[in-house]
Request: fold
Amino acid sequence: MSNASIQDKQDQARRKLITKLLPYVRKNGVHSLRMDEAAKIMGVSRATLYKYFSTKEDLISYVVEVMVQYIQEVTVSSDREKMFADRFQQIFEQSVLLLESITDTFLKELDLSSSGSGEQLRSAMRQWDRQVLEFYEEGIREGVFNPINGNLIVLQDRMLQSLLDVKYLMEHHLTVYEALFEYYQLKKYQLFKPDRLQTVDDTRIIPRIEYMAQKITQNLY
Reply:
């Protein structure tokens, strides 16, 4: 077996282990995570864990690498044949999943690390924000969207992390699905001009919101 094949198999094994750890990291961060605890979550022995990750910093760096790669693979459709409504719904779903995956708790803990992983992840997120901003600006130029400062809409998306907080949801008697659907409606009416609202078919996004709500609820509670 070639060195490249061996490396590829090792990378696949590392990714599988990290995938098992990600739900814990999203919810609890990494500051208090111990290697023996990580091994338990991954379902492997300490010896196996150290085979793939020599230190906790190595483990954290790979978590960030997986997240950065995920962000870079998520792109805003530039297909002009697709309706703005379809692209808007796609971006809404992608934004929710990204923000649910990368919490403020995790980012703040990375900022305390000496590895520079926090800035690496923030840079990838800024790249995504630029793609979304370009889409909003295109919609304004084409007369589909209201002339709103796209930067403010991008910034508003950060509110999702506060919205999808257990305490907030309980205080306001909201389910995750209700919070996501109401936020979707808010963005739709903000962006689309009144004479373009009929182009947005909500029945297409409802199954996706239901899926996201179920996934997020499992991670929250």
Q: What stands out?
A: The chain has twelve helices and no strands. Residues 64-220 form a domain with the Tetracycline Repressor; domain 2 fold (CATH 1.10.357). The longest helix spans residues 3-28.
